[in-house]
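Input record (one chain):
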Amino acid sequence: MANVYESKPMKWVKKVGEKVVSNKGIQAISSGMMMVMGVILLGAVFQLLAVILQTVGVLDQTSGIYNALMVPYKVSMGFISVYVAFTIAYSYAKSLKMQALMAGLNSILIFLIAAAPIKTVTLAEDAGTFTGMDTMALDAKGMFVAIIVALTTVKLAHFFEKHNLVIKMPAAVPEFLQDTFRSLIPLTVNAAIWTLLGHGCVALTQTALPVLVTGLLGMPLAALTSVPGIIIIVVIASLLWTMGVHGTVAVYAAIAAPLMQYYATNYANHEAGTALVFMPIALFGIINCCGGTGNTLALCVMGLFSKSEQIKAVSKAAIVPGLFNINEPIIFGYPIMYNPILCIPFILNSVITMIICYFGYMLNIFKPAYISITANLPIGFAPYLTTLSWTNIFIPVIAFAVAFVCYWPFFKVYEKQLVEKEAMAKEAA
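The corresponding structure, as predicted from the sequence alone:
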C-alpha cells in the first residue's frame, strides 16, 4: 500500500495534474478569476444587505433604497465578463512577459466587439428607433467568450511580438507610445477576427456569439456539471492534493464560469419571484465546507487528543486556520500528502457528503444559493449567507460527522504507526 503513489497510474495522474496546474493559460484563468473576487464580494455585500432588508419587510423591490443598494451588485455581476476579460488577459500577458495592462485593455475592447454587437431597436409606435450596444451578454452569460477572447488575443499578440510583426518606434519615443504602437497590428488583426465572428454569428444564426458558444458547450458542460461529473471533479481535485498538486487550481478553470452562472441565474429567479434552481455545481463547495479541502476539521479535532506528539502539535497549530477552511498545515503537517492511509478518507468523505447533500437539495431541505459570497468565512457562515436559509448551516455539520466517521479508523492506524516511531526515536536518543 505504501508504494501506491509509485504505481504507473498514479504517476500518470500526477504528471497530468502538474501539467494542467503549470499551464500558463490555466494559471491565467485561475488567477484572473481570483482577481475579480473583490468585485464580486463588493456586489455581494450590498446584495446581501438589500435582500435581508427585503426579507424582514423593511424594503421591497420597487423601493428606491432597494434599487440603490443593488447598484453595486448589478455593476459587478452585470459586467462580470468584462472584468474577467481584463483580468485573465492581464494575468496571461504577465506570465508571457508582455505589457500586461495593454493586453487587458485590448482584451476588453475585443470582448465588447465579440459579445456586445450594435443593434437597432424599434421603439414604441411613432417613437422611431434606437441604436446601441447589446449588453445582455456582459454578465455571467458571456463568461466563456470572455475567457476565450482573453486567451486568444494575448496568444496572437505574443505570436506577433515573437516574430517581430509589430510597429517599432525609436527609443526616444515615450514608453507608453511604444507600447501603443507595438500592440496596433495584433490588435487590428484580433479586432478583424472577432468582428467577423461576432457579427457573422448574428447575421447567419440570428444568435449572439455568447449564446451560440454556450449552446455548443451545452452537452459537454451538462456532463461536466452533472452530479456524477462534479463528483469526478472533486475526486480528481482531492487526489491531486494528496500528491502535492494544488487540485483546486487544476479544476477551477472548468467550473468557474458555470459557478458564476449558477449564482446569476438564481438571483434572477429570486428577483422574479420564481423558484430557485438547484444545479449540481453547488455540490463542489462541499469539498472544503468544514476545515478546508477534504473537510479536515474532524481530523484536526481528533488530533488534539492524539497520543502522537507530532499529530497533537500539528492539530494545535491547524485548529484556528481550519475554522476558516484553511488546512495546509494539516495536508503538509500530518501529512496527508503522499500518505496512503489518510488519502482514502480524505477523498471518500467529500463524495459521501455530496451524495447526502444532493438528496437534501432534492427534498428541499437545503436551499440553492443565489448570493455570491466568495470570501473565506468561518465554517457555516457561507452556507447561510449565500442562501439566507438556516437549514443550509447543517451542510458543514453533516460534512463534519461524515468526515469524522471516515477518518477515525484510518486515523487510529496512522496514529499507532507514529506513536511506535516516536517511542523508538526516544529509545534511540
